[in-house]
Amino acid sequence: MDFELSKSQKEIQKAAREFAKGEFDKDLAIELEKKHEFPTKIWKKAAELGFIGIHFPEKYEGQGLGLVENILVAEEFCRKDSGIGAAVVLAGFAAENLLHFGSEEMKEKFLPKIALGEMLCGGCFTEPDHGSDITRMDTTADKDGDEWVINGVKTFITNGCLASFFTVLCQTDQTVIPSHRGQSMFLVETDRPGVNATEIGDKMGIRMMSTAEVTFKDVRVPMDNLIGKEGKGFYQVLEFFDESRVLVAAQALGTAQGAFDRAIDYIRQREQFGKKIGQFQVSQHKIADMATKIELAKLITYKAAWNFDQGKIDPKLTSMAKMYAARTAVEVADEAIQLLGGYGYMLEYEVERFYRDAKITEIYEGTKEIQKNTIANAFLGKLK
Prior knowledge:
Radius of gyration: 21 Å
Helix content: 40-55%
CATH architecture of the largest domain: Up-down Bundle
CATH class of the largest domain: Mainly Alpha
Order of helices and strands: HHHHHHHEEEEEEEEHEEHHHH
Distance between the termini: 39 Å
Shape: globular
Mean pLDDT: 95
Oligomer: single chain
């Protein structure tokens, strides 16, 4: 059993840390957050240096690496800045559906553009009336000649107003029982007639990212835009979640570490009652608890990524990683604010923004309650 990263993995980790240190400026982050503006220049530069699509094969302009390397980048980016980091890390969100299930033509056409920073993408799974329940879709896709016609509404879609294409989960058989067996996934370019994306409004956190409601009204796509096999969309999405949830866990892990770093810096310098805050036992105990949670979150997140790279699908483990890392991010950021006191509540000191950005990791890619269901079902099975 070896808990050490390889030499190349350490080099990737270091490169990501140095890039973030040089490019993720605090004042720029505050400005982008206030404007709700995507960090386009940083994203494109990250792509030029090979950080985007690092897990894509080289023939698609990736580096042919795995999920472990991908989460190392995510962790370092979000550690330096929770907002810029999340936006850049999720620039190619859901492109993995093409990588794992798409046709060769799809891969050749779209994956290089994601890796080179020429386009963003998104996954359209969540619906207004269903939330985390994707076992039934109101968005439908019906055959009409040599085309599919898509109608429906998706909500809380990451990169919604900026993406060049979506991978969309639709109900293609409305009579089959159980209904999830009648779902299929499609690639839908956003410039097709009938596709419309609208920002959902102000958000608590991740304000640099576009989060939209996307409507599909009689959107026609060719038969070749079917991703994978007809009727297998639900299962494909579940497999995608086993990868994407680990990436969100890494986002949460980096966010927790970033808040922790700022708390450490503050209590080493700030004096109260004639002593450094870090000299008080209550502060030291907080630091001990925060550090321990981060270390545990790191261990399970790294293990889940390693497990995926071994070709193993373990929804229980990925759910554990996402649930625990996300909870750690929220709790550590909360304690960081407490350690900074009134300053922690101020935008300038960053930890309040890390707290706001941390919370989404307990919600998207399946809420923490959904993760608990997955974990419990792995042990209990289906009870009647």
